[in-house]
Amino acid sequence: MQANRLLASLPRKSYRDLLPGLAAVTLDFGDVLYEPGARIRDVYFPDRSVVSLLTVVDGHSELEVGLVGCEGMVGIPLALGVDTSSVRALVQGGGAAMQMSAAGFHKAFNASAPLRHGLHRYAHGLMAQITQTAACNRFHRVEARLARWLLMTRDRVGSAQFRLTQEFLSHMLGVRRVGVTHAASALQRRKLIEYERGNIRILDSAGLEAAACSCYPLVRQLAENRQGASVRKRTYGRRQ
Amino acid sequence: MVKGRSIPSPDPRANHLLAALPDADYQALASNLERMPMPLGMAVYESGGAQGFVYFPANSIVSLLYVLEDGASTEIAVTGNEGLVGISLFMGGETTPSRAVVQSAGHGYRVRGAILRKLFESSGEVQHQLLRFTQALITQMTQTAVCNRHHAVDQQLCRWLLLMLDRLSSNEVLMTQELIANMLGVRREGVTEAAGKLQAEGLIEYRRGRIAVLDRTQLEARVCECYGVVKKEYDRLLSWVAPQGRASN
Complex ipTM, two decimals? Predict the structure, then answer.
């Protein structure tokens, strides 16, 4: 049972042809898969792992512009004919993934129209995610943005409990650590999360969704509909 | 243009992406290209709406905007004659959360999405060019996300002016402060203040509804890194981009 939904959506034959080139790997929290400007050597199809796409600003600080989980692939530039990454890809949630070499990917990509179509649609969806982030960064409050990113991580990790250091959070949100502390404390005071020593636990899903900015339902729908595969129905309780 | 002709015949290859296609591919498309006026404010596509056509600007500039529920908007990217508008039609994505609006009037060429998609599927070179343009667009969108988070209004205004200038053949942008405010997603007062600063520094001259860039070099020195990152990526990925600004044919 293929947990990466992009791979799972391929017709049987396409998937079987791909299989020899795929290797099951474990991505570890904090691993850097790509640096900006570096040649992409391998692509990754996450299972329960989650990868952050970060731009590097002013030479050092970072801003998260996208999240890739089981709905997609890390290494999308290869599907667009570009062999270098323009972002840093950082493992934010450790776990299983399928890895494929760039050479293997090119071969599979050229041979399979369903794979090409799936990846182009995914790339388009990633652009929608980035668009959302651009608007979000312009208009939404830190607390609401934090709630959104926490929910997106939860959706990809598949658990209400995960690790996120303050440093990561400050990159996700593009604010300094004091801003992170304030936002996280506010959510904690509202009994929506528990946040201790880098460990997040979502206590109230429905409440957190209500607290999240309006970007959240939009990006979630995009991620779930993307492959046209059956949408995993989850009930989160009523939004107020 | 050919001397002695009083009316230049419309040439889709004023759009540099079209001009870069291999001749056979261009010819396959040419009879399906329709010259269209692109007046200021025209909606090339709306969010959630079906997009039937792909547009190739000849001398107009199109803004991709994200509009929130409360009506506030912010520009995510701009496209002029270096590219096309309507990538959903060959990327196969669902409808986009943004809308595309003509921000600088002119004309362009449109073709039915289905026709371009067919060419995209059948020609490796066309696919290659279109996808690399898509990657460049992703970089522009990403950088906008960064800029919106990290940089002050006056730097964002510099970035916006430079992106526009690269796609225009003059040093003047016709645009009200109100519209610029919508593009940058800030209050009008913010734009007034930022424009005032740049004017005081001798970089621009701002009169009602138009901004003339007086010192482009200084503007490039003043802008945040976001402009350079995007320019470098476009230069790198799009073989048809002239190194300094956009040369008109």
Answer: 0.81
Domain boundary assignment for chain B: 9-150, 152-223
Can you tell me the distance from the alpha carbon of B24 to that of B28, in angstroms, rounded to the nearest whole number? Answer: 6
Superfamily for domain range A5-136 = Jelly Rolls (2.60.120.10)
- Tens-binned pLDDT, residue by residue, of chain A (240 aa): 678 999 999 999 999 999 999 999 999 988 999 998 899 999 999 998 999 998 877 666 678 888 999 999 999 999 999 999 989 999 988 999 999 999 999 999 999 999 999 999 999 989 888 888 888 888 889 999 999 999 998 988 889 999 888 888 888 788 888 999 999 999 999 999 999 988 999 999 999 999 999 889 888 877 776 544 333 333 222 232
| Homologous superfamily of B9-150 | Jelly Rolls (2.60.120.10)
- What residue segments make up the domains of chain A, in order of their start? 5-136, 141-213
| B198 CA: distance to closest CA in chain A (Å) | 22
DSSP A114-148: HHHHHHHHHHHHHHHHHHHHHHHHHH--HHHHHHH
Q: Collect all residues of chain A within an 8 Å Cβ-Cβ radius of residue B150.
A: 57-58, 63, 174
B146's torsion region: left (phi>0), alpha (psi -120 to 50) or beta? alpha
How far is residue A215's CA from residue A220's CA, in Å, rounded to a whole number?
9
Task: Tell me how close the Cα of A9 comes to any Cα of chain B, in angstroms.
Answer: 15
User: What does the block give as tokens for A74?
Assistant: 């890390």
pTM of the model: 0.85
Shortest distance between the Cα of B186 and any Cα of chain A, in A, equals 8
- Residue contact A214–B98, C-beta within 8 A: no
Q: Does domain B152-223 have CATH number 3.60.120.10?
A: no
List CB contacts (< 8 A) between B65 and chain A: none
Tell me the fold of A141-213.
Answer: Arc Repressor Mutant, subunit A (1.10.10)
Structure tokens at B1: 């243009």
